Model the fold of this input.
Amino acid sequence: MKKIMSVLLVATMMLLAACSAEKTENEVKGKEKAVNVDKGLLNVTITLPASMFEDQNVDEAVANAQKEGITAIKNEDGSVTYKMSKSNHKEMMEEMKSNVIQTIEEAKSGKDYQSIKDITYKNNFSEFTMIVDQAAYENSLDGFAALGLGMSGMMVELFNGVKPDDYKVTIYVKDQATQTVFDKIVYPDALKSQD
Done:
């Protein structure tokens, strides 16, 4: 399950990072390339677009999934459809959530983001609050932590079946001393505004 999770995580991060540019390109072409999650009664089917496999060997990704007991099919358009049991999907989601929590803990306690004092979040990762030393935050590159949280939250929503047009992750940045929220970042809107 860890190998397939790695493939899915890397592929999803690439898709989310390029989502605004790709969406514009797809609107021009009239086609939407998106992850499709179908939660059936007994199984969950996830179709990843071909764009998520541009720098990967699709046949290897399919073979790795099948080793993990997940049915994987390479489609004619280059997309890959994974069919798994509800329990496999639940395990995948729990691992994904565990990875997000690990990222949060590393941001709070690591040396990369000196201004961050704490991070709280909703259980579904649709909302995060970064509690920071405001002066240190504004004079650093610690805002990249918000990007990581936003991408992680969107990934969890995406693989949990939230439609790409409906997912939203809000990051509040709060000053530790005054307890005042001085910034609010909403993903994926923040990615679109950077074009």
About this structure: Residues 86-109 form the longest helix (24 residues).
